[in-house]
Amino acid sequence: MLVDHVPGPGQIAHADADWAEPAGGGAVVAAQLAKLAGACDFFTALGDDDLGHRSAERLAGLGIAVHPEWFGQTRRAFVQVDAHGERTITTVGPKLRPRAVPPLDGYDAIFFVAGEPDVLRAARVARFLAATPRELPTLLEGGVRLDLLVGSGTDPGERYDGGLDVGLLVQTEGGLGCVADGRRVEPAPVPGPVADTYGAGDSFAAALCFALARGDDLDEALALATRAGAAVITGKGPFAAQLSPF
Fold first, then answer.
1. What is the pLDDT of residue 198?
2. β-strands 183-185, 178-180: how paired?
3. How far apart, in whole angstroms, are the C-alpha atoms of residue 157 and residue 220?
4. How confident is the model at residue 204 (pLDDT cuts 50, 70, 90)?
5. Which of the two residues, 8 and 204, has the higher pLDDT score?
6. pTM of the shown model
7. Alpha-carbon dihedral sign for residues 211, 214, 215, 216
8. Of 220, 215, 199, 216, which Cα lies nearest the Cα of 35?
9. Over the chain, what is the mean pLDDT?
10. Residue spans per domain, the chain
11. What is the 3-state secondary structure (H, E, C) of 131-187?
């Protein structure tokens, strides 16, 4: 929902508009990969309820091949977007993590967002494996080498202080760009008015994974990723303005 400001303690915010979309890091990554690569298989967990089935239909409509495990109740989130496009998120319900190991042979690139350690270990069959530090305990338990670890450098929930075998570490910093293995990278120009920053970081991460997996050098890959992060914030919600070559 669009609010005049994110309320502090005891305050009231007034919303101008609201809408609903399936979101979360996995969905945003899958949608951006589908736009850049032309296809994406999304192995996920959804509640066997109305929200879960509607989410699967919407994601399929974005060109994603959705492979859901149906169990539990779909997690919801309320997102407040202020006049500057910044978002604040409140989640409701536990996170559903895929439990079954899907068939993963033959993939050039896999982006691990959430799941059990056995799923992560199976994902290492891919030529290129990326992950987000949001699931750090799972990554530590899984114990596989990651070609790319990418996440927010300002979100305490994505803090990373070491302990993994990582080829490339990239930490995003919103409008300040990102830091790639200690080297600061400037953000790309935003190609229009800022509407909503939701999904910028995950779109950046997905584009970086795509570019590195297809063989781009690091500078080329970071250029594509920063463009993807800048593009998405010009649209309402995470999907409307994601970068697409088609």
1. 86
2. antiparallel
3. 28
4. very high
5. 204
6. 0.89
7. negative
8. 199
9. 90
10. 2-6+23-232
11. ECHHHHHHHHHHCCCECEEEEECCCHHHCCCCCCCECCEEEECHHHCEEECCEEECC
Q: Which of 18-22, 31-35, 65-69, 190-194 has the lowest mean pLDDT?
A: 18-22
Burial class (CB in 10 A: 0-12, 13-18, 19+), 234: middle
Is the pLDDT confidence value at 86 over 70?
Answer: no
CB 25 within 8 A of CB 113: yes
Q: What is the number of other CB atoms lying within 10 angstroms of the CB of residue 173?
A: 15
56 vs 60: CA distance, rounded Å: 6
SS3 string, 84-100, reads CCCEEEEEECCCCCCCC
* CA 200 to centroid of chain Cα atoms: 8
- Candidate CATH numbers 3.40.1190.20, 2.40.50.100, 3.20.20.70, 3.90.1150.10; the one for domain 2-6+23-232: 3.40.1190.20
The residues pairing with 152 across neighbouring beta strands, listed in sequence order, are: 172
Distance (Å, rounded) from C-alpha 219 to C-alpha 161? 24
Contact predicate 181/169, CB 8 Å: yes
Both tokens assigned to 33: 């990969």
How much is the pLDDT for 15?
66
Instruction: Look up residue 219 and give its two tokens.
Output: 């500078």
- For residues 191 and 96, what is the distance between their CA atoms, to the nearest angstrom? 35
Q: Of 170, 167, 197, which is closest to residue 181 (Cα–Cα)?
A: 170
Q: Which amino acid is at 107?
A: Y
